[in-house]
Design a protein that fits this description.
With about 100 residues, this protein is mainly β. The chain has no helices and 9 strands.
Length: about 100
Amino acid sequence: MSMADDFGVFKSSVKEAAAAVKSAPGYLKRIIVQGGATSDTLTIYDNTAGSGTVLFKTKIQEVASTTIPRPIDIDVPFATGCYVDFTGGANQIDFINVIYS
């Protein structure tokens, strides 16, 4: 899936567990979080692993209904790569849709 914006063409990558999104410089536009019934911490790094410069960090609060996706605009460049780190698992973050270029 791609979408056009003032910044060019963006790609979408769905992650169900901590993982690298891109292993090169790019731009993090937005994330869409599908949460669960238990809170979880989400950290996004400018790296190819779960360490280094933090681009974004937040606690995703639990919600009564896990079917409500939550979009969060990030709008930040990354130099090394983009890595999303979260616990996931039963009743936590189900998945994150990362919009990037």
